[in-house]
Amino acid sequence: MRGFEYAQRTLVRGGLVALGVVLLMGLGSALYGVTAVQQVVEPMGIDLRTPRILHTTFASAWIVLVGMSACVGWLGEQGPLGRGEKLALGGALTLFGAAGLGVLATVPLGLVSGREYLGFHPLLAVPILLGWLLLAGVFFRRALPGLFGRPVYVLMWAVGFVFFVVTFCEQYAWLLPEVFNDPIVDRRLQWKATGTLVGAVNLFVYGTALYLGEKLGTDPDVARSPRAFALFALGLLNSFTNFAHHTYHLPQSHTVKWIAFVVSMSEVLVLFVVLHGIVKQLSLSGGAARLLLVASKWWTAAIIASAVLLSIPPLNALVHGTWVVPGHAMGAMIGIDSMVLLAFVAWRLGETSPLRAHILLLNIALFGFVAWLHIAGLADGMARIDADPAAITAFAYRPAWLRTWLYPVLAVLGTGTALGLAALWWRWMPKAWSGRLSPGEPRS
Length: 444
Ligand code: HEM
Description:
Bound molecules: protoporphyrin IX containing FE
Largest sheet: none
Number of helices: 16
Structural class: mainly alpha
Number of strands: 0
Shape: globular
Oligomer: single chain
Helix content: over 70%
């Protein structure tokens, strides 16, 4: 393993490969609903399960790998890589690569967990967890001394590393018969673990935004400000409570639901303030990275609205299980997380062009896509209220306009979003794989 810089570049490469899979499978999922497409793929035995599992699995991989590359960048600033660290880092990256290839090879063969999230075969969780522990070991060896005196992004990554391990293991509680045999306990644990896993991953994204803000900005204290620490504290608290708004339809006290609502809302509000603070101190020459951070700020504002929809119990009941859920998930994971991570990739790969028109068109397509998923989901939820239960599974209760336009519009706006992201991917993949840090280059 060559130095930290090479490890960072390898994580960026892995993240971009994962994004490529996300886009292909996202397209597959979006086009699958169009009758003409279904008539072609169904006789070939292709169903929606494979694209969905690969889409959501590699969506998490894209976010985690690029979030980690920022963290490895910071590790590199703490001094050259030691011999033991080289082995650990090399081992971690190899295990992640093997797990990724394993998922790609096994899911299309139907070797899956059958779960809503982490749908790949549970055996593949082993290399992911081992790789994670190896990387966490390298991180804590350098970050622990004087941890509380370090910029807040180091604290965010530290908590993210620990939380991921806890929630990732919790995700597999269903392997225990006493959990698997009790659907309520199983559902509660699954959604609690998923909510907390999202919280852990968010801490890597927030850390990356603050680390990049420090690199690109003029305010050396942007990652030591009280609002940055407020975001850290709320992100931490929300990791414990946000599960509640994933489980409204399971028996639990209303107090828990309202605590989750207040904490989630505060977190998104403070995130908006922090991103505003980061963007404000960025020099205008920040190019594409700056524009992408500006986009993530405004997406945070937009997600506040979507989160309100999902967090108020009666509204949650209305939209649960509808297209609002993927709309909210993708609004947050593309609009906030991916814009921050694309900004980091643009900076790391030395993107010099501001790409204004491109970033604007991407965000317009994404806005249309997310808005349509919310409109379709809300219309579905409303029409479902008085529907005959027998009509629910076949969506026979759907208004005619929704039956006609749901999938064609989803396919068009989804494709627009995919093309917007793919154009950046196409521009940056060659940069990520060539030059001094390319795999083929001799050691420098
Ligand atoms: C970085 C980009 C993307 C990320 C991070 C992402 C993430 C996700 C996530 C997490 C879900 C699952 C939501 C849930 O049910 O809880 C999802 C579902 C979905 N995504 Fe994406 N997505 C991305 C891009 C796209 C694109 C470009 C398209 C369209 C071409 C797309 C189409 C879909 C569809 C159709 C679903 C619903 C699948 C189903 O439940 O059957 N995604 N996405």
